[in-house]
Amino acid sequence: MKTLATLFLGGLLTLTLTGCGNNDDPVNGPDVPTIDQNTVKAKIGAYYSTPSSPTAPVPNVEAAFREKFPTATDVEWKVSNGVYEIDFEVDRVDYEAWYDADANLLMYKHDIAATQIPAAVSAALGRDYPGYRVDDVEKVYKGNIVGYYFDLEKGQMDARAFYQEDGTFLSTCLWEDATVKPTNNSNTETPPVDGSLTDAETDALIAAYYSSYDRDVPASNVPAAIRNSFTTLFPTARDIDWDLSREVYKTDFEINNVDYDAWYTQEGTLLAYKFDITRSTLPQAVRNAIARDFNGFALEDAEKVVKPHSTGYYVEVERGNMEYTAYYAEDGTYIASTFYQSGGTPPAQNGGGQNTNPTPDIPADGDYTDAEIDQMLQAFNSQRDEDVRPSQVPAAIQTAFGTQFPNSRDIEWDRAAGVYNADFEIQGADYEAWYATDGTLLMYTAEVWYGNVPAAVTAAVSAKYNNHIVDGYKFFQKGTQKGYLVEVEHRMTEAEFVGIFLEDGTFVSQQRD
Question: Most distant CA pair in the chain: distance in Å?
């Protein structure tokens, strides 16, 4: 699905961003067949009991889906144990729906705003999870149940909860087999890692994984040796996804609502794994080191990393629009900015850690004029995009991308109207890039720290949005134009906007986020 769709019309930048999801249900009510609730529960539980795989649309299910959701866009299909999950958008709101093989709609859910939570549910949530804030909420139609599914946060603690619309607590999961409210610290599984490889060899293999494009792998295509090891070491894993890059397999999964990542060789050797932890479980030595190296920063995320011969802690910290990642040994020794490398100096010791992410120049005498690029980007946004595998990306684009953004990771490709869009990260910063089929870089955006934004731009932003909070900056270049996209939020109304400024501070336009 598109995370940022960008149009340039008449030489001006126009943004189409994912909506905030304030509408309750664009498809007008549940209309979920009255299948026996135990049957619905069993089928949804079966779906989550094994890894899902991407699949092509199934005719009878697709017909039922299109009848129910005729305006759905950005549709993606998965299957597990004869149950189909369909991810899509309606009126820029994210949806998921589950059908069985007989085209029965078992359940669907969609994003809603926090203001749409019923009072009875809000009251129950405050009683059951005091001190937690709502990070995300979805409205769920499941058999004859209408409910609300929450992602909750309290400091570094995460929880999930599923409530019926009258405030009755149902479960901590959508398939309703965990009816006990969780404690503040979820149980985690920490199996040992085979010690046949050194940590340096392990790091080199994981670094190789991130050095190239990864691709989704159906569970049936994962070598049996890996699957056997995985089910032995992580027997209660759920929501399992597999990726492959440079002959290294990576899996994302959950155990007791805790997010995990693990890496395997193709022979089935577990290289390393990491999982979310709470702030309170960080060793005091690591907390002291973070306070020393990132004075004034807030700890946003923490993970424990288990390797063959060591255990470490990978953290993300934030201050204003600055974000950093850091990896520490158990004794608080700073190792690197990533968990699979060594060396480097934290910002407090290198003069502030200025962002050095690449911002390549698009030649002013390129193959396309600004007007032609406007038309190509407009065509891209006027059509429904489709996910494409790296192998489907033209060689000219892959070559250009690898040269222009050599340290990219977590790369995802979309295609529409002959234009290819890449979403990716470099050193924790979000990027997007748009390419013509001949490999010409039409445009890109790069998340930047506010300290690297020109003074002319920050002054113009302060003057234009004096009653707003600045949430972030993105540098952009489109043809001969360079500037900044500025995400702002009104202090009183909380209305969100994206302002577009050129490098000299000239205000171009504004779009509602």
Answer: 65
Taking the CA atoms of 3, 360, 425 and 410 in sequence, report the sign of the dihedral they define.
Answer: positive
pTM over 0.70: no
Are 408 and 425 within 8 A, CB to CB? Answer: yes
Name beta bridge partners: 130.
none
Fill in the DSSP letter of residue 486. E
Give 183's contacts (C-beta < 8 A, 6+ positions apart): none
pLDDT class for 23, splitting at 50, 70, 90?
very low
Token pair 């937690």: residue? 132
Place of tokens 């949530």: 125
Q: Say which amino acid occupies 70.
A: P
SS (H, E, C) 271-296: EEEEEECCHHHCCHHHHHHHHHHCCC
- Give pLDDT, residue 469: 76
For 448-498, write each residue's pLDDT tens digit: 866 678 889 988 988 888 877 777 789 999 988 899 999 887 767 777 889
Centre a 10 Å sphere on the Cβ of residue 343 and count the other Cβ atoms it contains: 8
Residue at token pair 């946004």: 381
The DSSP code sequence of 134-180 is: EEEEEEEEETTEEEEEEEEEETTEEEEEEEETTS-EEESSTT----S
DSSP category for residue 493? T
Give the number of other Cβ atoms within 10 Å of residue 185's Cβ. Answer: 12
| Tens digits of residue pLDDT in 336-388 | 888 997 766 666 554 444 445 667 877 765 678 888 998 999 999 888 889 99
Please say whether the beta carbons of 88 and 75 come within 8 A: yes
Strands 238-245 vs 215-216: parallel, antiparallel or unpaired: antiparallel
